Amino acid sequence: MMLGILALWALLPTAVQAPPSRRTCVFFEAPGVRGSTQNLGKLLDAGPGPPRVIHCLYSRCCFGIWNLTQDQAQVEMQGCRDSDEPGCESPRCDPSPRAQPRPSSTLFTCSCGADFCNANYSHLPPLGSPGTPGSKGPQAIPGESVWIALLLLGLLLLLLLSSSILALLQRKACRVQGGPEPEPEPESEPESGRDWSAELPELPELRFSQVIREGGHSVVWAGQLQGKLVAVKAFPLRAVAQFQAERALYELPGLQHDHIVRFITASRGSPGPPPCGPLLVLELHPKGSLCHYLTQHTSDWGSSLRMALSLAQGLAFLHEERWQDGQYKPGIAHRDLSSQNVLIRDDGSCAIGDLGLALVLPGLAQPPTWAPTQPRGPAAIMEVSTLEAGETQDGGGAADDDAATVQQHLELM
Predict the structure, then answer these.
(1) What is the pLDDT of residues 298-342, one digit of tens each?
(2) If 100 and its partner were Cys, which of 133, 145, 380, 406 is the partner (CB 3.0–4.6 Å)?
């Protein structure tokens, strides 16, 4: 009998620590997150970048944590729990609010008990729902962050003011030289009988990984195309006009710049079952938006100047009207520039994205017969000017001067 008791005690730890079958979960940890749950499972090599796959060692429960900032959900952590707890029996990831680290952000967590159930959440409860943490008292903001935010805001206002003055000078010069003023473009009838999907190829090798941003007319996914990480902007069928307008801007000749999000291709497809919608495949920047980056990190003076300089260079390029290699690039007004639409590159510089509301401006160097090749979306492209190609004017001088000033400060550091 004593030998039987000793054998039972010897087998008990093995029975407790090794569940009958391992749960498989999605594993991801955002840059800057403190602590790691990697030791709670065995990582599998699932590709060149995030997210990865993990086999749980101590539980049959997956978890996910999302940070909701200004109505934009950003994944923070995904992985295995250290033990089975209430809520792990659910086959779906139903997040609930847990903490509010800042007045403008809320953390949502979920636990679920199915393979890969933590890849995406089913829905996020509204911030006003019962149980949502809320801190109405004032919270201290580090003084350095305030100065950085004021610096970036001042540079942005200066660039917008310079762009407005430049547009007024171009319009005035057009009147003096006798050129006709641009007239509003008449609204075209919707082409309801046109099969837009016939113009877009399918990409069987395109893979959807996880949602990184949700907007009013689209959902942005992190994915892979031919083994490379990409961002996939998926539009529903009701937003075909918005897709066509943004695609027309991205496919303008000469719109390639280090500080403009790179357009790869347009396609059709869906992360789930049909119906398939139009897709824009763009360059992926894993560090996220400028808003998310500044809420999660504290930047030094050199990093702040680098972000401001690259943002100024990208905006100056958008506004500039130029000829390059026999191709004409018109001036473009973004019209929706915010910290949510500016992304952080791997080198710490900025890239401007989301051209859904951008507008092509009439120019002085524009050829008489020039017109975009893609269909025009609502208020996307103004009527072509009839000025001769020889009448040129520098369209980005004011913004270029601002960028040069910031560059000189950066070189002195």
Answers:
(1) 989 999 999 999 999 999 999 998 887 778 888 999 999 999 999
(2) 133
Determine what percent of the chain falls in helix, strand and coil, rounding each to the nearest 5: 25, 25, 50
Give the start-end residues of each E strand in 2-102.
24-29, 41-44, 52-56, 62-69, 72-80, 96-102
Beta-ladder partners of 387? none
Distance of CA 13 to the CA centre of its chain: 47
Instruction: For residues 396 and 400, give the distance between their C-alpha atoms in angstroms, rounded to a whole number.
Output: 6
Domains of the chain: 24-112 (2.10.60), 198-360 (1.10.510.10)
Average pLDDT over residues 43-53: 73
Provide the residue type at 275 as one letter.
P
SS (H, E, C) 206-218: EEEEEEEEECCCC
Q: Which residues are catalytic?
A: 336
Q: Please, are residues 261 and 242 in contact by the beta-carbon 8 Å criterion?
A: no
